Amino acid sequence: MPADTATMRKLKPIVAMNEALDTVMAEDDDVVLFGEDIGAYGGVWALSKGLQKKYGEARVFDTPLSECAIMGTCAGAAMAGLRPVIEIMYVDFMTIAMDPLVNQASKIRLMSGGAFDLAMTIIAPFGAGTCEAAQHSNSLEAWFLNTPGLKVVAPSTVYDTKGLLAAAIRDNNPVMYLWHKMLYDLEEEVPGGDWIVPLGEAAVRCEGDDITVVAYSLMMYRAMEAAAEFDGRISVEVIDPRTLHPFDLDTVLTSLRKTGRLLVVHESPTRCGVGADIVRRVCDAGFELLRQAPRVLGGKDSPIPFSKPLENAVIPQVADIRAAIEAMVQ
Amino acid sequence: MSFTADELKRMYTTMVLIRKFELNTIEIFAERMKRGDFPGALHSSEGQEAIAVGVSSQLRRDDYVFSTYRGHGHAIAKGIPIEKVVAEVHGRATGASRGYGGSMHLFDTSINFMGGNGIVGAGLPLALGTGYAAVKRGTDQVTAVYFGDGGASQGAFHEAVNMAAIKKYPIIFICENNLYAATTHVSANCPIDDIGERAKAYGIPGPVIDGNNLIEVADTVGAAVARARTGDGPTLIECKTWRHRAHCMVIPEHRPGKDRKYWAGRDPIDHMRDYLISENIAAAAAIEQLEADAQQQLDAAVAYMQDSPLPDPAEVLEVVYAG
What we know:
- The complex is a heterodimer of chains A (330) and B (323).
- Helices cover 36% and strands 22% of the residues of chain A.
- With 330 residues, chain A is of the alpha/beta class.
- Chain A has a seven-stranded mixed β-sheet, sandwiched between helices. Chain A has a five-stranded mixed β-sheet with strand order 9-11-10-13-14, with helices on both faces.
- In chain A, helix 6 (158-170) links the parallel strand 6 (151-153) and strand 7 (174-180).
- In chain B, helix 4 crosses helix 10 (284-307).
């Protein structure tokens, strides 16, 4: 059923993901879903709620607590022509699953001379803000972006959460689908029915003339909040890339033609980070558009500490973003 | 297991072909290295031919195989055409992986040969995926996955065998225990005598066999395949064996002389030749003919490789992502 704007309703991201899974599983028997607690329980985040009952244990099932085995099963099933989707309960646990993803799934297409397509999606929550300390709060997207052969998606809005997941599962490559834990309780109005948001298309969240802020996932909302606080005094354009690879550079360059100023905001570490690469791309393709040095406001050079004031101190806050914008536009 | 005389002779020829391939490849690599042209890593499977041929004798074309970096024999025995193997290890566009994979990464989708692996033990978790796919689709395909004595020390080994046993996936875990992981003796990798013993911890069979005896390998694998096809789950088979060469071409031989002497009298091809003669399956002259056939196949494959172009660098980025 296509998107139906006549039947708008409020939805949370996890329900949006569940709906996307339901839709693609209904239309394609090759789509399967597994991971820790994913079967009868429905997933610790409720990702798979109701899906085992609907699609059976052969397609939706629990695994042992073995991230390497889960990722290996996923890659091997994709090699056999299935379209597996797995949940890694926290992106932090990806360290255990890195070989089957980084040495296997992302490389098998190339190593086989293009003989195998690995259509597989890894769903993992990321990010700080929940006081879960250093091993349950990471933002690891730069690792995956540094791995040729992978695609990386990081939705913010509920609409995108659903549409991008449907696109990721239908994509014929390994896709890391990263959603932010702090957006878990977000509720937004979305249409009824189904839709797709294609990978590799950014969205302009608010238009402005003075500065371009590129921010994704939770940081998009913080950038929007910071932008609103200027109350028209500084006119901020916020761009949400939505997909980190492939990256929609054109939308950023178009914005810079207007603003000439670039600030990238993310919570993963600044060093060798996502923002550094976006700045590199902009310098390569549109250095002449910049009227001043571009800036990256990212996570501090620190693991994520536990206690709230410490945790806040290493992750960009609304006030940090506002200050960064102000400093650039003076 | 009962094989016809023709089947036994074919298996012998394949063992000889693998042996000749390994010797020829080392020769070409050594020649290039002498010229200062480093052609990549090469891990010879010389001495382990009975396992590759014995395992493949029990598999169908549509059964899945995951191999290792010492996998030339696995690939040839499963049925990748020899010229495609030769072309790949020498980086030609006509190779099994079009020159993108090399010696450690031979693939062939048409026979479900799912690739070698440069990472020790990394094939085991992947085998869960094809094992699962067969169950999900209700086919009776099995998956055979090779690994070594070193691989059995990886977490991936334990995660994979555990999950396969829980799910009863149709997988045959084949440990080629050649006693040395690079230069480390298996006693420094495993605190018990037999890696097959570990099967007990996962509640599955774990036969320990002479990997240099083709018939014993075929019999044991045949029973495991039958078990897997009927839904009774995985088997771990430990094949004791010996590689004739050091770990790879750039690591000098270091294994003690007494080990080498012991195994020199246990060559799998010699063993099979004796078997063919003593069972009156083939006379010495007929065996010589089989060996000549293997030589001819190899010579044709080397000529094919020499006539083949190198890959076009302009195409390199085209294979990274699927459309």
